Amino acid sequence: MEKRKRWSLEDVHQYLSEHDIRISLYRLKIFEYLINERTHPTAEEIYNKLKKEIPSLSPATVYNTLRFFLEKKIVQLVNVEKNEARYDATLSWHGHLKCLSCGRVFDIHIENLKLSGLEGFQVYEKHLDLRGLCPGCAKIKNIKEVEYD
Ligand SMILES: [Zn+2]
Ligand SMILES: [Zn+2]
């Protein structure tokens, strides 16, 4: 993925307005978190991160706001994890790698991926989901293997 600068609250305000979304503090802060952190968080993770800064926030508000963002198509669900809903504000075509050790979900840049055999089909969704180890965990795993071999 390309390197992007952090979005300011003004950037988020403008983006939500452009998508005909009425502005509220919760919507601003939740979208700002998603677009800047890019960790593909669950609703619970977002709640835990924002509750100190916004004491009036409730888990239900976070959940409902994310549902609303999904309806408005400014966030998407990440498919790499079937057992928990993770959210992504990056909408361009990219893949995900789930690290099986630390559990983090990373964005994977896709270039020149060729599919064949699709003549006559209509495709409405496409996902590229990878599972493995992130570089940090792969290093530790290799070191352990060396130590205990
Ligand atoms: Zn990892
Ligand atoms: Zn992503």
Task: Give the biggest beta sheet.
Answer: 3 strands, mixed
Q: What percent of the residues sit in helical stretches (DSSP H or I)?
A: 25-40%
Q: What is the third-level CATH name, the topology? A: Arc Repressor Mutant, subunit A
The bound ligands are: zinc ion
Structure characterization notes:
This protein has one domain: Winged helix-like DNA-binding domain superfamily/Winged helix DNA-binding domain (Arc Repressor Mutant, subunit A). It has 5 helices and 5 strands; from the N terminus they run ααααβββββα. The protein starts with 8 loop residues before the first helix and ends with a helix. The strands form 2 sheets. Strands 4-3-5 form a 3-stranded mixed sheet, with no helix packed on it. The radius of gyration is 18 Å and the shape is globular. The protein has 149 residues and is of the alpha+beta class. It binds zinc ion (ZN) (2 copies). One zinc ion is lined by residues 40, 88, 90, 94, 96, 107. One zinc ion binds at residues 99, 101-102, 104, 133-134, 136-137.
